[in-house]
Design brief:
Length: 678
């Protein structure tokens, strides 16, 4: 039987079946078991403006996305080209079938099909055959059932979700993303025409492989749109000259570590609206990759940007490259590392609140022992008396350990937890070394801590999911102390070319040059930077000030053109010079100083503590070191000598037995020993 005759009989049978089902086959239609119409779609991560950050493919690596807003001009073009009576037919269009039959008989070959969009949807969701009798009958039955159970808009949406656009692309949005790098909300006539033509034969018309076939198919759509007066002749000619895309564009994969985390925490969600800014995220990912490459082999980097007023995370870069050979899959914003000197501002702020110090207080940077622990400065130099302000700006170790000893390491750990960080102690019990980085913290933790400082000692908990309920940290510092810390950090010398006092920032370098840190804030934003190796091996010569600080200031430059001014001082802030401070704040002394020797107090060298002295009734020899004369000596609370300016002299014998000897200098500082005299 000739092919044309077979086709004629087939179409006649389909027309009869369509008429039968419409007039007398309601029960047959109602009994139709439909395939699932809620197919799996790609999980999408969107930024604060609704722009796509990342999408995840579905089964077999297929990209199938929600259509979203679609250009009405494309929808109009699609219906006019594929199914002119879509809005009026019941799923099967007898007129289109007759037309297709007549064209085939006249031309001796298939010119156009008789399938409606609803029938195409039936085939797509069922992935069934198209050429055999049973396949066509099944398509008609499913199409008629779809028309009874769904609205026209829902059927059209199914087509826009499942139509093939070449390769592993399904749906209009995957098509426009891959071929044009944009969503389908606004399309040129040429783009719309290509997207109408592609689903008819997605592989033989793939623009990247068969550009001539793709162009010819597109132009046929354009020509028909001119005949239908959808396009003018000039619009058609102009669209026909538009270039055909030559490659499939990669789907965006911004903030891969953070989006992985969001999907793990909320696996049920198909759309995740995040607080990130896609444009900023892309710029900073590139910036971190470039900085890590400059820093040396196997060096990675991480960066977080947050608004410390609202708590929103605006960018989160977990590594120098998600698939980079430098263990880029490791999220270094969450990895526990030694924070180096970055906790020092918190400790000074706690000391201010406890009345132990003020920015203008003098503190001793001199050798000191705490049991068996003898801290040293990074450069091994001792500077004597320095202002607290200078000690923090120079990041000296000994002064901050003195303050930590007085505060107690437990108080520092409690403040970290109040700031909603999660410090990790390998030994379980905090020691004085926490002030120099002897505790595990993540970059996220440190940004949270500095956001709290920037917000005045209490601020929002950082978050990255849009519309999340914001929470507040507990107060860790008073507003005056938090402002004083910011004022001190703003006085640090910035990298070359950066403005002065625009940013309150601190750098840090962990033991062995394993981690280089820089964290800073202005009046609205806080940024934290980490550079190092993900495996924790040293980076020779890496310092936070040299490596991370320039990246911090560059990141602020990518964030906005100008720095936001820092907060003004709260009314209760004590802003005076050292001479105007209350006497207890002029020089740091522990609270137990009344019972301990001050570093600048006179030191009784002889007799030593608990000495047994054979004086035989004669005078006692006294030898001193330090202090400011003249000196007075008390024996058992009774003055026995005053006005003595020498540091070696004699005093009257207080008599046999135990005696308490006290030497007091001109400033009221003293030393005491207890001896036994025979």
């Amino acid at each position: 039987m000739p092919k044309a005759t077979r086709l004629l009989l087939t179409l006649a049978g389909l027309l009869y079946l369509a008429a039968f089902t419409r007039d007398r086959g309601e029960d047959w239609i109602n009994a139709t078991v439909l395939p699932p119409v809620l197919a799996e779609i790609s999980v999408e991560m969107r930024d604060r403006n609704g722009d796509l950050l990342r999408a995840f493919s579905v089964e077999d690596g297929i990209w199938r996305m929600r259509p979203g807003p679609v250009d009405p001009a494309f929808t109009d073009m699609l219906i006019r080209y594929e199914d002119k009576r879509f809005w009026s037919h019941a799923g099967v269009d007898p007129v289109a079938m007759v037309r297709a039959m007549a064209q085939t008989l006249w031309n001796g070959r298939t010119i156009s099909g008789g399938s409606t969009l609803t029938m195409q949807v039936a085939r797509l969701i069922e992935d069934g055959p198209t050429g055999r009798w049973n396949g066509k009958i099944r398509q008609i039955r499913v199409a008629l059932a779809l028309e009874q159970r769904l609205s026209k808009r829902q059927i059209l949406n199914l087509y826009l979700t499942h139509a093939p656009y070449g390769g592993n692309l399904e749906g209009i949005r995957a098509g426009t993303r891959a071929w044009f790098g944009k969503d389908p909300a606004r399309l040129t006539p040429a783009q719309a025409a290509l997207l109408v033509a592609l689903p008819q034969s997605p592989e033989s018309r793939r623009p990247d492989r068969k550009p001539d076939a793709a162009r010819a198919a597109r132009n046929r759509v354009l020509q028909r749109m001119q005949r239908y007066n959808v396009l003018s002749a000039s619009e058609m000619r102009s669209a026909a000259t538009e270039a055909i895309p030559t490659r499939i564009r990669m789907f965006p994969r911004l903030a891969p570590h953070l989006t992985d985390q969001a999907r793990r925490r909320h696996p049920e969600a198909k759309t995740h609206d995040l607080t990130l800014d896609a444009g900023l995220q892309a710029r900073l990912e590139q910036l971190v990759a470039q900085a890590a490459t400059r820093a040396g082999p196997r060096v990675s980097g991480a960066l977080i940007v947050a608004d410390h007023r609202s708590g929103e995370v605006l960018a989160s870069v977990g590594s120098a490259g998600y698939q980079d050979a430098r263990q880029g899959f490791v999220d270094m914003t969450r990895a526990l590392r030694s924070p180096g000197s970055t906790l020092k501002p918190l400790i000074y702020g706690l000391a201010f609140d406890q009345g132990l110090a003020h920015p203008e207080t003098l503190i001793s940077d001199s050798p000191v022992m705490f049991g068996r622990y003898a801290p040293r400065n990074f450069d091994g130099v001792f500077r004597g008396d320095v202002r607290v302000r200078d000690a923090l700006q120079m990041s000296l170790n000994i002064p901050v350990v003195r303050l930590t000893h007085e505060l107690g390491p437990a108080r520092v750990m409690a403040a970290l937890r109040k700031a909603e960080t999660a410090p990790d102690l390998s030994g379980g019990t905090p020691g004085l070394a926490i002030s120099l980085g002897g505790v595990g913290l993540s970059l996220h933790d440190l940004v949270q801590l500095y956001a709290t400082l920037a917000a005045g000692g209490q601020g929002p908990v950082l978050y990255h999911r849009a519309l999340a309920q914001t929470a507040q940290t507990d107060r860790i510092l008073s507003e005056p102390s938090a402002w004083q810390i910011g004022d001190i950090l703003a006085g640090l010398t910035p990298p070359p070319g950066a403005p002065q006092r625009a940013l309150a920032y601190k750098t840090g370098t962990s033991y062995g040059h394993r981690d280089a840190w820089a964290i800073g804030y202005d009046g609205q934003h806080v940024i934290g930077v980490w550079l190092g190796r993900a495996d924790g091996t040293p980076v020779p010569g890496a310092f936070g000030g040299d490596l991370a600080a320039p990246l911090l200031f560059e990141a602020f430059g990518h964030l906005k053109p100008d720095f936001t001014p820092l907060r003004p001082p709260p009314p209760a802030t004590l802003i005076v010079g050292a001479a105007q401070l209350p006497p207890p704040l002029q020089r740091f002394r522990p609270r137990t100083a009344a019972f301990q020797n001050d570093p600048m107090a006179p030191n009784l060298l002889f007799p030593p503590e608990s000495a047994l002295i054979e004086a035989r009734g004669g005078p006692l020899t006294i030898k001193l070191r330090g202090g400011v004369g003249p000196f007075s000596v008390l024996a058992d609370g009774v003055p026995v000598l005053t006005g003595q300016r020498h540091r070696e002299f004699e005093i009257p014998n207080p008599g046999p037995g135990f005696a308490s000897l006290v030497v007091v200098d001109a400033r009221g500082l003293s030393d005491r020993v207890s001896v036994q005299i025979e």
